[in-house]
Recover the amino acids of this structure.
C-alpha cells in the first residue's frame, strides 16, 4: 500500500521506441556461444566428468593392468597384448558415452527442470541449441579419445596406427559414430519420464551394449545369439571398426566373419543416423510430457 | 462485446473468444482480454482457472482451439524469432542451469537479442552484483527469481510476462521484488502477470482481470473491481432482545450506509447522545470482492467471512 494506485498512468507510459537497427544475431554465432555454455555445464557436473569423460580411460587403466599382468595376451599365439586388444573397445565406448549417454541424460534433465522451456521463450533458434550440443560432444570426445590414446601409448605401450589408411578409418568411424550417437541421444532423451530417472534409464542401456558388443570381452567368444543381438546396435560395429585401426595386420582373421566389414559398419551407423534424425525431429519436445 | 473483425493491433495484447480444451475439460472457455501498451495487468484466479494456459498461449508455448490472439500485433502461434526478441517471459519457478553463474547466464542470454541491455548494469538493477560469480544452485529463492527476471528482460522486451513471480517468497523478498517490477513499469514496459496474491495485484497492477473456469469474470482497477454492487458496505450492530435476553448480532448489506444507520438509530430509539451497540460499517476488501467473484461457497463469502472473525454469526 505504499504506492498509491492513482500514481499510475494506465496506457500513458511512453512505449519504448526501439533503435531499430538491431538485427538478430546469426544462428551460427548463437550456436558457437552455446558450445561454450555447454562445455562449462558439462565439466562442472562431477557425475558427467567421471562417468562419461573419464570412464573409458579409467576402465582401460584397470583392465589393462589386471589382465595385462604377466604379459597377458588375446587370441592364438603370438597373440595381441591385452591393452592393445582392449583399447579399440574403449575408444568406441568413449564415443558412445560422450555422444549418446551424455545427450540422452542432459537433454532429459534440461527438459524436466524447465531449462529447455526457458530457452524456447527466447529468440534462440533451435538449430543453435543443437549446434551447441553437437559442438560440446565433438570437442569433449576428441579430447577424451586423445587422452585415451596417450594413456594407452605411454603407460601400456600400445602401438599407434602407422599408416594414413588406418588413421582415415579412425577418423571416419569416430566422426560417423559421434554423429550417430548425438542424433540417437537427442532422440532417446524423450524416453526417461523425468530428469531424475534419466541416468537410471540410459546407463543400463549403454552398459548392456558394452557387455554384448565385445567391449569388455573378446567378441568372437561371446555366444552366437549375443553376437547377433549386438549386431543390431552401433556399438558392436564401432568397436569392430576401431579394432581394424589398432590391431596388428592380419587380426581380422580373429573376427567372426574373418574380415573388418567396413561397409557394414558404415551402413549400420548411417542407418541409425538417418532413422534417429527422422525420429528425433518428429518427437523432440521443449516441454515436459505433463506440461500439456 | 466480441466483434467479428480482427483484433486492433495497437494494444499490446488482444484476446477475443479464446478457447482451449484438454479432453473434455475446458481450460479456457471464451476469454476476452485487452492489455494496452505501458499497462500492467494482473490475472487473478484460483488454481485451474486457466491463467497459466492463457498466458502460455500468449507466449506461443501452446496452440489454441479457437479465438483470436494478437500479441504486439502478431499471432503467437505463428510468430518467429523477431517477435520473441520483443517479448520477455518469466516462467514459474524452475531450477535449471544450476551449474552456471549469474554473470555467465546474463551475458549468455544477452547474446540472443539484437538490442540487449548491458549485462553488468542489469545485474546491478536486479540487485545481484555481489552474486555475479555465484552458481545459480547456490542462490536463495528470491535471488533466483531476480535472476529469472534479469534473463526475461535482458532483451529489452516491450512486453513482459510474469507467471506467479513471488510464490514462496518471504515478505521482505516480495517487497523488493515488487520494487523491481514497479521500476520496469515506470520505464514503460507492458507487463502481464499472473498471481495468487491480492496484495501483489493491488500493488503492481493498473488493472486486475479475474478469471474463473476459463472465463473473465471481472476486469478493472484494483479499487474498482467488481463494480459498486460487489463493494456495497456491510453494517453490523447488536439488536437488543425484546424481553431482556442477550443482544443478537445483526448485519445488513447496503449501498447507502449513512441513510441505513440513520434509519436504524431511529428504529432503535437511540437519541442524539446514544450509541448503537457494536456498530460497524465495513467496506469489502479486494480479497472479499475477489472471493465473491470467483464464487467461493456462501459460508466463506464476503460478509460471513468477516463476520465470523468478530464472533458468532447471527
Amino acid at each position: 500500500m505504499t504506492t498509491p494506485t492513482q500514481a499510475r498512468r494506465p496506457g500513458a507510459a511512453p512505449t519504448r521506441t526501439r533503435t531499430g537497427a538491431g538485427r538478430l544475431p546469426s544462428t551460427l554465432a548463437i550456436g558457437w556461444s552455446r558450445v561454450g555454455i555447454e562445455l562449462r555445464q558439462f565439466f562442472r557436473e562431477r557425475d558427467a566428468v567421471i562417468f562419461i569423460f573419464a570412464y573409458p580411460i579409467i576402465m582401460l587403466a584397470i583392465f589393462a593392468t589386471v589382465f595385462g599382468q604377466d604379459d597377458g595376451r588375446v587370441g592364438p599365439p603370438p597373440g595381441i597384448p591385452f591393452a592393445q586388444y582392449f583399447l579399440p573397445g574403449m575408444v568406441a565406448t568413449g564415443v558412445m558415452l560422450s555422444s549418446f549417454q551424455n545427450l540422452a541424460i542432459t537433454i532429459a534433465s534440461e527438459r524436466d527442470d524447465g531449462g529447455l522451456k526457458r530457452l524456447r521463450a527466447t529468440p534462440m533458434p533451435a538449430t543453435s541449441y543443437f549446434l551447441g550440443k553437437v559442438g560440446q560432444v565433438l570437442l569433449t570426445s576428441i579430447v577424451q579419445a586423445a587422452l585415451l590414446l596417450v594413456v594407452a601409448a605411454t603407460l601400456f605401450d600400445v602401438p599407434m596406427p602407422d599408416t594414413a589408411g588406418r588413421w582415415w578409418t579412425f577418423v571416419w568411424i569416430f566422426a560417423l559414430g559421434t554423429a550417430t550417437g548425438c542424433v540417437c541421444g537427442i532422440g532417446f532423451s524423450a524416453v526417461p519420464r523425468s530428469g531424475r530417472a534419466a541416468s537410471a534409464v540410459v546407463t543400463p542401456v549403454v552398459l548392456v551394449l558394452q557387455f554384448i558388443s565385445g567391449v569388455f570381452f573378446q567378441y568372437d567368444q561371446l555366444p552366437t545369439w549375443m553376437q547377433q543381438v549386438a549386431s543390431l546396435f552401433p556399438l558392436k560395429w564401432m568397436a569392430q571398426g576401431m579394432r581394424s585401426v589398432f590391431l596388428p595386420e592380419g587380426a581380422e582373421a580373429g573376427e567372426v566373419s574373418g574380415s573388418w566389414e567396413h561397409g557394414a559398419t558404415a551402413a549400420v551407423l548411417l542407418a541409425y543416423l538417418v532413422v534417429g534424425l527422422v525420429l528425433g525431429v518428429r518427437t523432440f519436445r521443449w516441454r515436459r510430457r505433463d506440461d500439456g | 462485446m466480441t466483434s467479428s473483425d480482427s483484433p486492433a493491433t495497437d494494444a499490446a495484447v488482444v484476446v477475443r473468444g479464446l478457447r482451449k480444451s484438454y479432453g473434455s475439460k475446458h481450460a479456457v472457455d471464451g476469454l476476452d482480454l485487452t492489455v494496452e501498451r505501458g499497462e500492467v495487468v494482473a490475472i487473478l484466479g484460483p488454481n485451474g482457472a486457466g491463467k497459466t494456459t492463457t498466458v502460455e498461449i500468449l507466449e506461443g508455448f501452446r496452440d489454441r482451439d479457437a479465438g483470436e490472439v494478437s500479441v504486439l500485433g502478431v499471432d503467437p502461434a505463428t510468430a518467429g524469432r523477431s517477435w520473441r526478441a520483443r517479448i520477455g517471459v518469466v516462467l514459474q519457478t524452475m531450477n535449471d542451469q544450476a551449474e552456471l553463474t549469474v554473470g555467465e547466464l546474463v551475458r549468455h542470454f544477452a547474446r540472443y537479442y539484437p538490442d540487449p541491455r548491458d549485462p553488468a548494469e542489469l545485474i546491478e538493477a536486479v540487485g545481484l552484483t555481489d552474486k555475479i560469480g555465484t552458481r545459480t544452485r547456490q542462490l536463495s529463492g528470491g535471488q533466483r527469481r531476480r535472476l529469472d527476471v534479469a534473463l526475461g528482460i535482458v532483451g529489452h522486451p516491450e512486453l513482459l510476462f510474469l507467471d506467479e513471480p513471488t510464490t514462496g517468497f518471504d515478505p521482505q523478498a516480495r517487497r523488493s521484488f515488487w520494487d523491481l517490477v514497479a521500476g520496469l513499469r515506470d520505464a514503460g514496459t507492458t507487463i502481464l502477470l499472473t498471481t495468487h496474491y491480492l496484495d501483489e495485484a493491488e500493488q503492481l497492477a493498473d488493472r486486475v482481470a479475474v478469471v474463473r473456469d476459463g472465463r473473465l469474470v471481472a476486469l478493472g482497477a484494483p479499487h474498482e473491481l467488481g463494480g459498486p454492487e460487489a463493494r456495497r458496505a456491510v453494517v453490523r450492530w447488536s439488536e437488543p432482545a425484546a424481553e431482556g435476553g442477550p443482544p443478537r448480532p445483526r448485519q445488513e448489506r447496503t449501498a447507502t450506509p449513512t441513510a441505513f444507520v440513520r434509519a436504524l438509530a431511529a428504529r432503535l430509539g437511540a437519541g442524539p447522545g446514544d450509541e448503537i451497540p457494536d456498530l460497524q460499517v465495513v467496506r469489502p476488501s479486494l480479497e472479499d470482492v475477489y472471493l465473491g467473484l470467483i464464487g467461493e461457497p456462501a459460508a466463506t463469502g464476503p460478509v460471513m467471512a468477516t463476520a465470523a472473525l468478530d464472533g458468532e454469526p447471527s
